[in-house]
Amino acid sequence: MSQFSLFRSTTALIILFFLSAISSSHADTFKHSDVQLNQEGHKDEHGEQKHDQREAHDDHHDEVEKILIQATRSGRIADEQPIRVELINREEIEEKAAMRPGNISMLVAETGGVRMQTTSPALGSANIRLQGLYGRYTQLLADGLPLYGNQAASIGLLQIPPTDLGRIEIIKGSASSLYGGSALGGVINLVSRQPGDEFSGETLLNATTRDGQDLTTYFEAPINDSIKTSITAGAHYQNEQDIDGDGWIDLAGYERYTARPRLFWEGEDGENLYVTTGFMTEQREGGTLEGATVANSEAFAQTQDSKRIDGGFVFNKPVFDTLTFNARASAMLQEHEHAYGNDFDDDEHESYLAETSLAGYTDKSDWVVGIAYQSEVFTSHTYPEFDYDYQVPGIFTQVDYELTDILTTSLSARVDEHNEFGTQFSPRVSLLYRPGDITVRGSYGQGYFAPTPFVEEIEAAGLSRLASIEDLEEEDAETASLDVTYTLGNIETSLTLFGSNVDNVTELEAFSSNGTSELDRVRLVNAEGESKIRGSEFLVRYYWRDVKLTASYLYVDATEVSETNEGRQEIALTPRHSAGFVAMWEQHGSFRTGFEAYYTGVQRLNDNPYLNESKPYWHLGLMGEITLGRISYFINLENLLNVRQTDEHPLLLPNRAASGQWTTDIWSRNDGFIANAGIRIKFGH
Asked: Vertex 159, ends 375 and 389: CA angle to 5°?
């Protein structure tokens, strides 16, 4: 039996064990409760009693939906979080699902301070950069569990459909105090939809002008008064597209299938259990078309076959009146078969989490203390010298305390004992000051990241040209932010100032393996000096009847020590200026129509023989959806200006890069104008 099959069988046995335990110990029919549970298990009926006392001085919150934030562990509603958390709600998820139903890339990319950076021009993979920090520093969670790995692969973002998401929570800046070394730059938590009391669901069909098709389904149903279930599944296809006719595939082809069942159980004494498992398989193809070649007159097909299976659970149980016990665990196994021209690379990624914690509250405070064990294992069947096995036990704690009615502080800290990089201490302090219509938040945090071979260039080109890794140190960062939000009638404004200092950034250094001037290999090194990031975000929203207008601006000054160690230079692929404008007119249950415009400014380019810096560009989009009963019809037009990077310079390099890539980095769009249209059908209640 293969390891993948063994893992799948073990996961099934674990789920069956929990189901049988529930059935045997709770055979009676329990009274159903619609109480929402946050990640540490604070019941909304308890939390609202506590929070309503805090809100007595502020009538504004009576008009706002109370959302308990999972990602911060504190059990507080969104408006009372000292740590700033940006939310993408179900309404926005539905909008973006009509634009990009196959993955969550567009969903998170259009949030202020968030940039989707394409890491592989051949396969189209991308990662998430928060406030200018590298994508590998972003921890991607699903209902608080690292189901996609402690370091989610760039291709993973393109394999998660948004159909079953209830909301998305984003923490920017170091969150290592909460989640360890994988959250050095922040956290994105994907929160699933909560099943209701009756059967319901939806099916979405989509097709694009680039020969792509999507089919996603979501269904939820109660089993009895205490058990509810949901399942989402999808099938996605994209035909290879060579848009500029140079023989290189600009839009990678793929065939992907996904499924994720979930189970929710609530007991009569307030305990609850959440269990999920996920399955994904994909074949992705890029590189040269059949019969085409690169500059050395050889074909260079680049493919990746992926299989992923994961499972996890979260269990909460009230202990006495003000304490809650929490236990959670997850496991993930992902298999890859890579081809980079004539080089083949098969590997496995494993990720495990086991965690227990105890949370409590008083009239003035919320606190949590816990222990965790994280494991991340990489095994290459082709290049075993790059195998790693990270085992990280840790303890963590967080205390939120109301100093006054308008001032709240949050202190959190974590100590990890990393088997490769030793003891790591990660603190964070946050303050919330809310004297009225003005809300001020400030945060300062420190964290670390345990380096792996998979920097962006290696994810794109593979391990074949990477020298053995020696004497790497952990990457360290300190991040700080100051956020001011002001609401006046129908206008909401927000200004954020942020900064980061990062030490020991892991980067590639090219060298010659044969003593000549030809740079044909790369090695991983810690960069000299600090990477410094300073910036600001500005956001304004205006609501007028059924119309919502949103404008945003992001300024990022990101620099690193220059290659010659003389002075500083801008970090590549980090635009100093970017902005966006979205207009949405919507009548619930009837129609929605929207227009969006996004500006991306000049970026420094690295190892690009054609340009030293990019050209600024605009991305324009237009969408519309009409609902007739249970059926909605939608159409979406992307990249109305038909912006393509290949209009500025060729994508293919005249010579193969030392890392093994045959293309320049992607700094713009590469798919040109594209339209999609489809139908959404809702069932049940």
From this structure: 15
User: Which phi and psi angles does 469 have, rounded to 5°?
Assistant: -85, 130
- Reading phi first (left if > 0) and then psi (alpha if -120 to 50, else beta), residue 420 is in alpha
Task: State pLDDT tens for residues 53-86.
Answer: 333 333 433 444 577 888 888 777 888 889 989 9
The helix/strand/coil state of 12 is: helix
Cα-Cα end-to-end distance for the chain = 44
The full length of the chain comes to: 685
Place of tokens 């909304």: 44
> Which contiguous run of DSSP H or E holds residue 144?
none
Amino acid identity, position 473: E
Dmax over Cα atoms in the chain, in whole Å?
Answer: 77
Which pair of tokens denotes residue 7? 């893992």
Integer Cα distance of 400 and 22 in angstroms: 34
DSSP state of 244: S
Residues linked to residue 230 through DSSP beta bridges, in sequence order: 220, 262
Q: Can you tell me the distance from the alpha carbon of 61 to that of 82, in angstroms, rounded to the nearest whole number?
A: 16
Q: Apex CA 510: angle with CA 509 and CA 514, to 5°?
A: 140
Residue type, 552: S
CA atoms within 13 A on the CB side of 660: 28
Q: What is the DSSP letter of 32?
A: P
CA 72/CA 78 separation, integer angstroms: 10
Which residues are paired to 526 by β-bridges?
506
Residue-by-residue DSSP string for 545-588: TTEEEEEEEEEEEEEEE-TTSSSEEEPTT--SEEEEEEEEEEET
Q: Are 317 and 265 in contact (CB under 8 A)?
A: no
Distance CA(280)–CA(159), nearest Å, equals: 8
pLDDT exceeds 70 at position 408: yes
Burial of 489 (0-12, 13-18, 19+ CB in 10 A): exposed
Helix (H, G, I), strand (E, B) or coil at 606: coil
How crowded is residue 542: how many other Cβ atoms within 10 Å of its Cβ? 15
High-pLDDT (> 90) share of the chain, %: 78
Question: What confidence tens digit (pLDDT) does each residue in 631-643 have?
Answer: 999 999 999 999 9
Q: Please name the residues in contact with 563: beta carbons below 8 A apart, sequence gap of 6 or more.
A: 569
Q: What is the DSSP string of 480-527?
A: EEEEEEEEETTEEEEEEEEEEEEES-EEEEEE-SSSSS---EEEEEEP
- How many whole angstroms separate alpha carbon 198 and alpha carbon 309? 29
For position 73, what pLDDT does the model report?
84
Q: Which two tokens stand for residue 169?
A: 């929570």
Q: Other C-beta atoms within 10 Å of 217: how many?
A: 20
Degrees to nearest 5, angle at CA 278 with 234 and 313: 140
Using alpha carbons only, give the angle 88, 126, 286 rounded to the nearest 5 degrees: 135
pLDDT at position 533 is: 97
